[in-house]
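SAMPLE LOG
Freezer: B-3
Tube label: C17
Construct: single chain, 120 aa
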Amino acid sequence: MRLAGVTVETPQPDAGITALGLTAHLSPRIVLSPSCCVFPSELRTVFPDPAQVCISQASSLVLQGQVVVGSMMLDGALRLTANEGNTLMCVFHLSDPIMNFGMLVYLHCMWVVGELKSFF
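STRUCTURE (predicted):
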C-alpha cells in the first residue's frame, strides 16, 4: 500500500510486545479481501487519491467487496463491507480522524472491544 502512495505508519523501534524473550514490532493490520482487490495495480481503484489516506501503526483495517476510500485518517479499527453488486464509497474528513480502541493484541489472545477470541 505504501508503494501505491497510502501513508502507512511503520512500527516504532521501542514499541514492541515481548513474549518468551522474543520481541515483535506490530505493524498496522490490513486485510483486503479478494472481492476488494487481488493485484497491487488494483489498489488505485480502492484508493483513488492515496495521499488522502493515513493509517496509524496501531490500526486494523478490513475491506470486503467493492470499496472505494476517497480519504481517511484511521487510528483504531475499521471494517468496511460492500454487499455483492454494490460499491461502497467512503470519504472521511481528514480533520476528524477515525479513533477507537480497535484491536488490542496481548501475547496469545486478540481482544476486540466487547468480544474475546483466542488464537488457539
